[in-house]
Amino acid sequence: MQVSFNILNKGMKIPAELIEAAGGDELIARIFFNRGYRDPKNVKQMLKEELYEPTNPYEFPDMAGAVERIDKAIASGEKIAVYGDYDVDGVTSTATLVQSLRIFSDKVIYHVPDRFTEGYGMNADVIRDMGVRGVSLIITCDCGISNINEIGIAKELGMDVIVTDHHNLPEQLPPADYVLNPKLLAEGHRARNLSGCGMAYFLCSALLYSKGMENKADDLLDLLALSLVADVVSLNGENRYLLKKAIPVLFNTNRIGLKELFTIIEKTAKMQSEEDIAFQIAPRINAAGRMETARLPVELFLSGNRQESEEIALKIDFLNKERKRVQQEIINQAIAQVEDKKKNKTVLVLFNEYWHHGIIGIAAGKVCETYRKPAILLSMKEDGKTVVGSARSVESINIYELIKECSSKLIKFGGHSQAAGLSLNRDDVEAFTIEIERLAERRFFIRDTIQIDVDAELDLGEINEELNNRLISAGPYGEGFEPPFFATRNVTVVSDRKTEKNHHIMVLAGENGIRIPAVKWFGENKSLQDKKFDIAYKVGVNTYRGNSEIQLTLDSLLETEGNPVKAFSGRFIEGRGFSLAELLKKHKNSLIFFEGLRANCPVRNTVTRYNIHKTDNLILLSTPASTIILREAISLANPENVIISFLYNPDYSMKGFLVNLLGVIKYLINNESGKSNFESLSSKLCVEEGIIKAALKYLKSLGKVEYSVNLGEEALQFYMPDDNRTGIDMKTSGFDKSPKKYESNLKEALAEKSSYQQFLLKLEIEKFNEYLK
Fold first, then answer.
1. Residue 736 to residue 638: CA distance in whole angstroms
2. Of 125, 259, 393, 711, which is least surrounded by CB within 10 A?
């Protein structure tokens, strides 16, 4: 599959009035222009929310009647039920309504459906049960607009129904008393594409306003921010205005449950952008409904108790880790099916009886992304007769229409052009597969060339904090206002550290000497080091380990001809045998590089590979863990001089290493609730992750440590040796209790590290340049 870059509207002059609307910033004006926003007045409003005229809640048809009916229910002490959904939009909608209604009534209950036993939407048995429990008013959120039968049952049982939903209108509206849906607004209305939680938020705002408590609506904005990003609604008009207003509230939330969840997340990632909502918060919330129950996040949002919130947040975080583990297993198995017998198919229909149907949708998306073809993943329901499936597609193929043409083989189906769901009888799987594969092959042609749209070409020297701040100010980004993509030509990968999951942690160098960190997630197995590329990327900030630095996230790399830039063009200077004070006196304005246990280094103002930056002089105070780390550190610092000191070095003796590791584990148990990961331990002890894994298995076989590991994230949980807890269903690492086996492996690995260290300590200074190559 070949890739080419397309510079959007290349050579087209941006109108002066649009540049003026963007504050004189031509690049920002071009970003709006490329996304179809070419009205200067509209762009001004998008950049400055104070110029925007917000939607009034009473612009929605039926709003006055809905508020009046809720007021009546509150006044007469009626039992009110909120009926939600199991995804982020559904649970935030549910919590928004419940929180607001409970200000005025203690007779408010809620229901979120079980993904596996009820599926999406309202359920007739649940409605009947609400009637038995004395409910007289049902308020739906993120569902209901298509539940004509279920709402009819509610009406027959004497219950009133207010529908709040945002999905497309059916030909016939349900027989609810009031229907609140932004799709009932006129075409082109600024609020027509609200999320489900957005619609619930407007109802609550109107209710609170009617009670003289409109300021309390701001307390709901944190949930609204989650919904607007997670539900992938178009970020223009009202959605954009609301999200800009809501994001600061979310990241400074007073909601106890969210604060506890953020505490867990921020151990590895700083929460600061809509991308963090999409990739850190939303997956955890969704995982609860996919793996167990969506009641967990609703209770998290509504909880006023810190201990309860902490327990729920930990459970949700664990369920997300389990989701990742199961998801990766499904993806691996699906890819194996493709490689074995489906690689030449236009649409990839894959079936496994045991795949988790709460997760096959995400896995289908990954398979689609990998092969750039539509993917339909199918798995068996518990009844042993029904097969359910999730489909994801590329932009050029409408998967919903494709499935619709094969609907004679299906029980039911639904969705849109890029994503769909379906169910069918087990006996019809083969016939459906053959029919849709043939139809896709006749109808569509999958091109061998993929075109990547980018907003502009940049020089690496233009990428800095100031540029990033300009890009942030033009946000928020998401559906309908995609994040900016850029291209840069003739970039050398001067350092490439590949992780076990094939993430490439790189340092890029331009022709002008500029260096910048970059990452390519799930890249190829081979190293990219010392090669030249044209690259397409997003600009962002890496906040790993509490450090903030500009980092590029690469989408595509196209290899080019030419001589690569050298990783290091300076000189190595002998510093072994000198004190640090002597070295600092001789080499002023030096950065001091040290990785290892802090207790072994008396100097505090040192840097690691995670926070190193440009400097004239770099002093290597410790031997690096590997040649790759040495090259990465020097590439990032890009110094004129590298001073070899190696004054304080890791202890790679068997006894010394194990004592140090046990000390770190004891500290983690006493101060960090026993939580860590392989990468963190590797950095602290200056070894590769494989050595940490071997050492832990050895210590566990001796009864010296007790730990569990989540394979999805390589997350570790340590316990005291006499503590038999295993966390919340955590999977323990597999091992047989044969200390000799692990002892032998560990001794061999540490001996190699010690030999490597001795090699560096004795390497002649004039040979370091050759060694770095």
1. 46
2. 125
